[in-house]
Amino acid sequence: SRVVTLAVIPGDGIGPEVVAEAEKVLDAVTAGGDVVFERTRFSLGAGRYLDTGDTLTDADLEAIAGHDAILLGAVGGVPGDPRLKDANIERGLLLKLRFALDHYVNLRPSKLYPGVPGPLAAPGDIDFVVVREGTEGPYVGNGGSIRTGTPHEIANETSVNTAYGIERVVRYAFAQAQRRRQKLTLVHKTNVLVHAGGMWKRIVDAVAAEHPDVAVDYLHVDAATIFLVTNPGRFDVIVTDNLFGDILTDLAGAVTGGIGLAASGNINPDGAFPSMFEPVHGSAPDIAGQQKADPTAAILSVALMLDHLGLGDEASRVTRAVEADIATRGSATRTTAQVGDAIAAAVQA
Ligand code: NAD
Ligand code: IPM
Ligand code: MN
């Protein structure tokens, strides 16, 4: 039998609640099969910081990096909690993992499943994937401020874009488009961000020349938000930078029925480091501990993980079980665990 080592980071708020259901479904889909997921749990997040003062130690990072894959719930405390003022869990933990493990592809699929009520009157067929660059852009922390807190303060946040970093994520996006509907849209803001945008455009054009089977177009990010609402069916693969991708994927989640359904993979396609799978949503302190969170995004993140690990059959069994569950969701409210139970049962049916 094949052993896959999995680092599990439940995190804060609803993180542990949705991860419990994701693991339930992972157990169901691997039961009786010959793949075994050997799990190590890591207590990380705002809770750990408040207990110990640690965000992510070198030992944590090294231990996590030794696994085949990572499943993360969500991290982060209540926004504005004064005790977390100096912590910055998001940078010190989540982004540190993405950067250190070279997760240069942040893969965020968006699909409107049949039966899901969304906010759009005429959504059409929505089925696209955002390939968000994960290691560069304005996220790198290349900035600083002077005269901080004075009326003369100057704060800079420099977006770092490298030809190497853009080309590798663009190539991944083209490969996705070839496997899908052969359409790729670059989203940027080349009319204003001429230096970075110009390089993104040139690299996409160069890689496009090697992929005559893929139809390529370009949208400024502001216009892309219009089309994501008025005609989301026009998109197949969107490739974009770290910050634009962050914003577009919350919007994409909203138009496909809510953030409780949006899954993601932070992927190192080269396999040099473990990839990390997590819902797009955060720790939702407003509903934490109440069994109100929808675990579907975490469960679909397990499907992305299985697919990444070459377990395509298991991945599609999870996806089909989720689709079946979604199709029969009525207005009845179920607990987080009830949704997980139903999907786990459907996986084994
Ligand atoms: P959030 O995604 O946690 O919550 C936004 C809204 O969506 C809330 O009303 C919440 O109740 C709802 N929601 C989120 N997930 C849901 C689910 N599965 N089912 C039902 N409703 C759900 O975003 P936020 O409030 O901006 O952030 C809360 C904390 O999470 C912050 O500390 C933030 O930094 C952190 N965060 C972490 C991640 C991550 O770990 N990947 C991602 C985003 C935000
Ligand atoms: C996400 C989150 C993170 C991001 C934050 C919490 C650092 O919003 O995963 O989308 O901006 O990437
Ligand atoms: Mn986000």
Automatic annotation (TrEMBL):
Q: State which pathway it belongs to.
A: Amino-acid biosynthesis; L-leucine biosynthesis; L-leucine from 3-methyl-2-oxobutanoate: step 3/4
Residues reported to bind NAD(+): 282-294
List ligand-binding residues for Mg(2+).
Answer: 222, 246, 250
Q: Which InterPro entries match?
A: ICDH/IPMDH, IsoCit/isopropylmalate_DH_CS, IsoPropMal-DH-like_dom, LeuB_actb
The UniProt entry lists the main location of this chain as cytoplasm
One Pfam assignment: Iso_dh
Q: What PROSITE patterns does UniProt report for this protein, alphabetically? A: IDH_IMDH
Q: Which residues form the signal peptide?
A: none
Catalysis: reaction(s): (2R,3S)-3-isopropylmalate + NAD(+) = 4-methyl-2-oxopentanoate + CO2 + NADH
The note on the cofactor says: Binds 1 Mg(2+) or Mn(2+) ion per subunit.
Instruction: List each copy of the Isopropylmalate dehydrogenase-like domain by range.
Output: 5-343
Positions bearing the site annotation: Important for catalysis: 139, 189
Positions in coiled-coil regions = none
Keyword field: Amino-acid biosynthesis, Branched-chain amino acid biosynthesis, Cytoplasm, Leucine biosynthesis, Magnesium, Manganese, Metal-binding, NAD, Oxidoreductase
Naming one, the record's GO cellular component terms include:
cytoplasm
Subcellular location(s): the record lists: Cytoplasm
Assembly and interactions?
A: Homodimer.
Full protein name: 3-isopropylmalate dehydrogenase
Q: Which organism is it from?
A: Microbacterium telephonicum
Organism ancestry: Bacteria, Bacillati, Actinomycetota, Actinomycetes, Micrococcales
